[in-house]
Design goal:
Blueprint: E1 2-5, E2 19-20, E3 32-36, E4 42-44, E5 47-49, H1 51-64, E6 69-74, H2 80-92, E7 97-104, H3 106-109
Parallel strand pairs: 1-7, 2-7, 3-6, 6-7
Antiparallel strand pairs: 3-4, 4-5
Helix pairs in contact: 1-2
Length: 111
C-alpha cells in the first residue's frame, strides 16, 4: 500500500489529514479521490456518495481502467471503521492501487 501527501490539485473535500513522517508526494491526474470526513460521510471528488453507490461507480471505472489508482483521505478525527469500510469497497471493486493521503509531519511542513 502506498502513502501519499494530499496535493492541492486533487478534486476532493478538505479534511484535516493526520501526519506521517515518511509521506512523499505522489500525484497522478487520473486518480480517483475519496474522502471520509470526521462525521463519517463519504465524498467522491467533492460529491457526497453512499457506500453502495461508491461501489457501483468504482466497479464501472475499474472495468474501463484496471490500472486506476485510488487515493483515500480521512480527517484525523474520522473513525477507523469508516476508513475500513471505504477500503473494503475499493478492494471489492477490484482496485489494486490504493493509497492513503496524509499530511507531512510538522518538521516537513515547516521546511
Amino acid at each position: 500500500m502506498m502513502v501519499s501527501l494530499q496535493m492541492d490539485r486533487t478534486q476532493n473535500i478538505k479534511v484535516n489529514l493526520p501526519s506521517a513522517s515518511q509521506a512523499k508526494h505522489d500525484f497522478k491526474p487520473d486518480m480517483v479521490n475519496i474522502a471520509v470526513d470526521k462525521a463519517g460521510a463519504i465524498w467522491l471528488e467533492k460529491t457526497q456518495i453512499s457506500l453502495p453507490n461508491l461501489s457501483l461507480v468504482l466497479s464501472n471505472r475499474f472495468r474501463s481502467d484496471t490500472n486506476m489508482p485510488v487515493y483515500i483521505s480521512g480527517d484525523r478525527d474520522t473513525l477507523h471503521g469508516a476508513m475500513v469500510e471505504v477500503l473494503e469497497v475499493v478492494r471489492g471493486a477490484g482496485v489494486q492501487k490504493v493509497a492513503f493521503a496524509v499530511g507531512g509531519s510538522e518538521s516537513q511542513t515547516n521546511r
